[in-house]
Each structure stands twice: as structure tokens, then as C-alpha cells.
Amino acid sequence: MPVLELPPxxxxxxxxxxxxxxxxxxxxxxxxxxxxxxxxxxxxxxxLSMAYLGRALTEWVPQRQLMSFGVRFAAVTHLGDRVRCSGxxxxxxxxxxxxCVRVDITAAKSTxxxxxxxxxxxxxx
Length: 125
Hints:
It contains three helices and five strands. The chain has helices at residues 11-21, 31-36, 46-60, and strands spanning 4-5, 66-73, 83-95, 98-109, 114-123. By secondary structure, the protein is of the alpha+beta class.
């Protein structure tokens, strides 16, 4: 799977994602709220990185071939972090009579720290 590298996370990124997703949790957009919660600043929605992974997958294969897609959240993505999405085919299989591949997928910071890890099942036809 081709790597997808995104620009640094900004406050604008977070505000736009909050509007698009309907997730207006103040910990992602209100610095005072984030600090009261013990964070140094706001941070990215976990689902933003999952959306980036979905984008990486559907830039690789047509959406109709994406049979399943799931992740585990592993670390926080902070302002200024650059997200890098990647995947590797780890198994050829069959599901419902269709040939498929299972792909291990990750979103990571430029430091290499993994923020999301999971897998996708891609139909080959």
C-alpha cells in the first residue's frame, strides 16, 4: 500500500474535522478545557487519524473493495505532529467466496510512534 504523509496537524485541521465529523469535544478545540483536563494543549481526534487511514486505503483501492477496516488507538496526536499512514499485505485469504488480502495498517507520527494500528480486508475483485 502506498504511504500517505499528511501535513502537520494545526488548530484549523482540528476545527475543520470537528465541523465535518460533528465531534465538537472541547478537548480537541478549546485550549483552556484541554489544560483543565491535564493536557498541555488541544490534540487531534483519534478518528481524524482513522479517517486519514481510510483515505490511504481508498486512494490505493476502490472503496467497494474495502470489506472491513478497524484500528486500536495507541497514542495521542498533538498539534504539529505529521501523520504517516502505511500498510502491508500480510495474508492472502478468501471471504464469502471472494479472494482477498489482509493488510496490517498503521498511522504514526514522524518520530515513528504509532498512534493507530489495525487491519483492513481488501477484496481483490
